[in-house]
Amino acid sequence: MKTTPGTDKPWGGRFTEKTAPATETFSASIDFDKRLYRYDIAGSKAHAKMLAKIGLLSPAELELILSGLSEIETEIESNVFVFRTELEDIHMNIEKALVEKVGEAGEKLHTARSRNDQVALDMRLYLREVCQDIIARLSELQKGFVTLARQYLGVCMPGYTHLQRAQPVLLSHHLLAYYEMFSRDKARLSDCLKRVNVLPLGSGALAGTSLPIDREFVARELGFDAISANSMDAVSDRDFMVEFLAACSLIQIHLSRLSEELVLWSSQEFDFVEIADRFCTGSSIMPQKKNPDIPELVRGKSGRVVGNLMALLTLLKGLTLTYNRDLQEDKESVFDTVDTVTQSLAVMIELLPGLSFKREVLEQAAEKGFMTATDLAEYLVRRNIPFRQAHGIVGRTVAYCIAKGKELTDLTLEELQEFSAGIAEDVFGVLAIAGSVNSRTAQGGTANTSVLKALEQAETDLGL
Ligand code: ARG
Description:
Blueprint: H1 21-27, H2 30-33, H3 37-53, H4 59-77, H5 90-102, H6 104-107, H7 115-151, E1 156-161, E2 164-170, H8 171-196, E3 198-199, H9 215-222, E4 226-227, H10 231-236, H11 239-265, E5 273-275, H12 293-317, H13 330-351, E6 355-357, H14 359-367, H15 373-382, H16 387-404, H17 413-417, H18 427-431, H19 433-439, H20 448-461
Parallel strand pairs: 3-4
Antiparallel strand pairs: 1-2, 5-6
Helix pairs in contact: 3-4, 3-7, 3-9, 4-5, 7-8, 7-13, 7-20, 8-11, 8-20, 11-12, 11-13, 12-13, 15-16
The structure holds arginine (ARG).
Arginine (ARG) is lined by residues 29, 33, 89, 115-116, 119, 323, 325, 327-328.
């Protein structure tokens, strides 16, 4: 039998030279893809069982492979496994270790399989778990919002457009807006999971295999809902990762908007909320400082999460079918997004119960800025004045208030009647903040009754 000259690689048969060290270091992915070891081993075990089922492995060989893979898993978990750069990636590191342990049986494991379908399998198994984990974290975060919304039920605050005071709202209504964003984020991940949970193994390098494999069996073993329909697509498709990175980008953007509000609201200028000391840091020079670093960092990290999405899209843009080594570059984007989003969610889940909203400041702020001007216009509409005219009347009333340094609620009935004779004593109920808030009873509005309904629905949905 001819032996391989000059190289010790599993693929070395046709080579006459040893790989250059520069090639090895530049092309190795083991430093980052070793985190896929559990999925790689689970996939190999299912594949081996299938090979035994169709008679390509004897029961004894299967036993050797399964126990060898379990040993390798334990070694990796107890940090004694030596990862080798010259073996490129997690797939070849594990396969080589298996062959060293169990000999020829190990050399049969890669039958009817390529690293191209293997790496697609590993990433799908990995992302399936990650999606479920992030969905669970999002539910925890939502519980935080629901708890705060319940705690502060009835507290009014200014609602803003253009960051200018617009209309009074309930703080709980504002908090539940975030509940809604994170509900949609969970739905997006659940939807992404449908495309993730498809078995690519059995596609071989790109064209399938001539061996009589049983893909249904492997799908059942690994809990996949479906089997990829086209081997060329299966080894080159990274749509599911793009979808995942896009869903995560929205999560991080939602966290970033929340962070921006916390930074603003905890400033002396707003003074709406106190963030617990344990989530803040001080200044090395200014002794009085207490800074909202956690929300700032969560906000800052949105850049890398969006960047990772752009990186993957750009990576895919010019790739011909099917597998190209470029695709190895998909992993670090995905891993970095997983780490960033997971950690951001974890810290925000802890931070929410550490928020103390300042009821008096919020309610006083809601009293200022002619916040019930729209209510006054709608009051006039109910008195049969066309809305455009009502808008003009109230606009002039506000101008008068600004000139006099008064709020709408400071005006006497006589002053108000100067602007419209239709105004009567009952106008003061409309101008009051609580009256304004509680008049917004339409579904999705900020009235106490509507918010309570939304809150109860949220509590039911979260199983609280
Ligand atoms: N490390 C590779 C990757 O992440 C695995 C697949 C390699 N396939 C190949 N034919 N070189 O994409």
